[in-house]
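Archive transcription. Copying these from loose printouts into the bound notebook so they stop getting lost. Printout 1 of 2:
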Amino acid sequence: MPHNKTLPEGLHPDTLAVRIASEKSQYGEHSEALFLTSSFIQPDAATAARRFAMEEDGYTYTRVGNPTVSSLELRLAALEGTEAAIATSTGMAAILLLGMGLLKNGDHVVCSQSVFGSTIRLFAGEFSKWGITTSFVSQTDVAAWQAAIQPNTKLLFAETPTNPLTDICDIQALADVAHNAGALLAVDNCFCSPALQQPKRFGADFIIHSGTKYLDGQGRVMAGAICCDRKYVDDVFLPITRTAGMVLSPFNAWVVLKGMETLGIRMQAQSERSLALATWLEGHPAVKRVYYPGLASHPQHALAMRQQSASGKGQGAAVVSFDVQGDSPEALRRNAFAAIDAVRVCSITTNLGDVKTTISHPASTSHGRLTEDQRQAACIGQGLIRLAVGLEHIEDLRADLALGLDPLQ
């Protein structure tokens, strides 16, 4: 009896998240198999030659391909609505692979100035060593993106929502700017995941993921991916990973596969808790401002609600940032540290996407390696605190945050 059946068309993303995978082995395993092997035995020398020359499908070496990693790539591409995906060791490795595949000496990039700190350092620092220049612009100002376009612009790069201020970019508008200039648009979809947002629907050419975050969902492993048209995977990215080796391990791929099975229900539950916390924080006297797309007070709230849901119900995702009160940079930093140090339930760590709520001070951690000018441009102040909301009970989270915030009133 065959173990593999063709799935019907038009399945809901929640179904794809638990069903899409590589073909089952001859044993008919129900859970996706974990292939912990560095190489694969070939039936004969001629077949080996064809497969190594990529003239015939077949696994040869895990740096080139592995069935468990293929399952992850198939599932993620199905959720994002793209033809293909290629997995990498981390999310930053995915961005590095994107740049190595698409850019060369003399090319120009337009990037949001509000993206993750390591992303800014990669474009402004490492890529500049290869003669690639980058202009950083306001995340939300489409006119600024347009004005930054140069004849040699090859790529526009944005993340939405941004880390940590949750700024939202208009994906469709940026896609139009890029394509009218003969460039391509990449969108980091780490914060929303495909459970809430599918940038391909709005014209993005590449979707970047840190699978370390919500795709895994429990803070266990590192992973990354690029989702895009198959021609880019086969002709541009795969030859690089085959040589450079920034590939995802089969074990990490298997862990993320298991995490993706609960992605939809986790994102819904964590978004609900995030909105409740953001609403409470807005009313707290020690809080100056709250950044969360699900709040009506967020400057891009309406845009977020349009973009952040494949099912038609807008969500705000699960990251809430807020500024504490203070009358100087020193006081802001002191108050932020006091609020963070008082927690007993939340974890003081910079990772996000976990079912355990995390709390951090971006100016001294995730964005600590930026220059002061870069932090100011990204509006990362000393009083800013970032929460990545997990699945604890909302009343316990409120009480935990109040331990640090109430004394600051």
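Printout 2 of 2:
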Amino acid sequence: MEKRVLLIGIQKSFMINAIAVGLQKENYKVETVDPYAGAIDRLIDRPDIYILYLGDLASEATSLFTYLNEHIDSERFLLYLIGNNDELTYATSIIGKEKIQETYLRPLDVKLLVEHLNMVVDYSAVDESLRKKVLIIDDDGAMLRMMKTWLSVKYHVYMASSGKIALTFLEQTPVDLVLLDYEMPVMSGPEVLKAMRDHSKLKNVPVIFLTAKDDKESVMKVVSLKPAKYLLKSMPKDKLIGAIDEFFVMMDARNNKQ
């Protein structure tokens, strides 16, 4: 991925110019465009990274938000939003939160934005065959898409909306980690894990539970099945991803000792 971004906002805005200058100092090529769907559509060879500055936008920005929400799935750009609490709340009421890579409160810390963008660019250069493979199993479509958005920067991510689909997939496709929802209809997370542990091909695949429950009873129900971790769905993004990163660091260290 090139160090190119599409900066969306009122081009005569002082903040748009300031953000552009800050990114250019870090060797990013910045293309600016006014916040209108038609203006974006007219651009040829758009970057893979979109940064939307919400300050100065009027209420008619609704059509822009709708455009971005509809096009992000097919065009697969990474979307970053900058605004105050009210602006971000309104924008994310139209653009699915699960489709947004990061949000930043005004005033923007450009160094933090650059740090996040550099990580995306650096990881995109990693050979796809070397990326860890993660399967997310959850019946909540929004949760699936949000986790995929978060993790796809670093990992090759697969999704399954039920335990049955996941087990069929795992028999055909090896993965390095399964992120498993604890509570699902038809086949619960513990039932999926038990089926994996009873399957000769899947019994050693590491599993981390994603759960809204942290009570001792839920943990004890599956302790004998040896899940690698329990992660609360309510965890902040950075802590949740950090826990997954830490798991792989420990796993690699353990494998290197063998």
